Amino acid sequence: MQDSLSINASAPLPRTFYERNTVRVAKELLGKVLVRRLGPMRLEGIIVETEAYRGRDDAASHAYRGPTKRNQVMFGEPGHAYVYFTYGMHYCLNVTTEPTGQPGAVLIRAAQPIKGIAEMMSRRRMRHVKDLANGPAKVTQAFAVNKALDGHDLTSGRKLYVAEPSHPEPCNITIGTRIGIKAGAEKPWRFFVRGNPFVSKR
DNA sequence: CTAAAGATGTCCT
DNA sequence: GGACATCTTTAGA
């Protein structure tokens, strides 16, 4: 029996959620809540845009050519954060997928801020809420995510995790092609909430 | 060891 | 629409 008052909205998604097909996880992450705990502070945002990156069958993936020091977490246990540094100044946040030993990750491209907005504003120095997390490197900046969280267990409920929203809303999911890549650019592995103003620009 | 590209953001015209 | 900042990672000599 499900009593709504007993639902802990901030409980992290279980590992079984991540231990599945990467494309499917990418799609189902839309509408979930990204939670960052900074001491007493809590930053939250609804995930509105994701991209799936797989392994040997995906030339755009970091895991395409096999494991390296950077991408090793993609090959590890599902439900961990994969954070990498790029363009000499930006971090990108992914969550690992697929059973242990099989590479896969979902890039969190955009989020709709719902809690800790003042803190995000000061971190980002932006005027509009829309600009806080409407891009992969903007998400990491707003949510204070960096290399220190690479490999972090998202089921631990500490520091960083993803949870079910307390008030789920139906959303129209749209499929598109991934952004900012050359190889594998034709694969329809980008998912976003149609009409949501917090999605990154196209 | 060296070189080249990169799952981007911001500011400029 | 385009330049540019800035440096890690990876591949190849």
Residue share in helix: 10-25%
CATH fold name: 3-methyladenine DNA Glycosylase, Chain A
**Beta content:** 25-35%
Radius of gyration: 16 Å
CATH architecture, by name, is Roll
Low-confidence stretches: 1-8
Q: What's the domain count?
A: 1
**How many strands in all?**
8
CATH superfamily: Methylpurine-DNA glycosylase (MPG)
In one word, what is the shape?
globular
Mean pLDDT: 94
Span between termini: 44 Å
What is the CATH class name? Answer: Alpha Beta
List its salient traits.
202 residues; eight-stranded antiparallel β-sheet; 3-methyladenine DNA Glycosylase, Chain A; alpha+beta; DNA-binding
Overview of this structure, please?
A hairpin with a 3-residue loop joins β3 and β4 (90-96). Strands 1, 2, 3, 4, 5, 6, 7 and 8 form an eight-stranded antiparallel sheet that branches. The chain has one domain (9-193): 3-methyladenine DNA Glycosylase, Chain A (Roll). The protein is built from five helices and eight strands, in the order ααββαβββααβββ. The chain has helices spanning 15-18, 22-28, 72-75, 117-124, 136-142; strands at residues 33-38, 41-53, 81-86, 90-96, 105-115, 160-163, 173-176, 190-193. The radius of gyration is 16 Å and the shape is globular. The protein is an alpha+beta fold and 202 residues long. The longest helix has 8 residues, at 117-124. The model is unreliable at 1-8 (pLDDT under 50). It binds a DNA duplex (13 and 13 nucleotides) through residues 51, 53, 60-62, 65, 68-70, 84-90, 92, 94, 107, 109, 135-138, 141, 178-182.
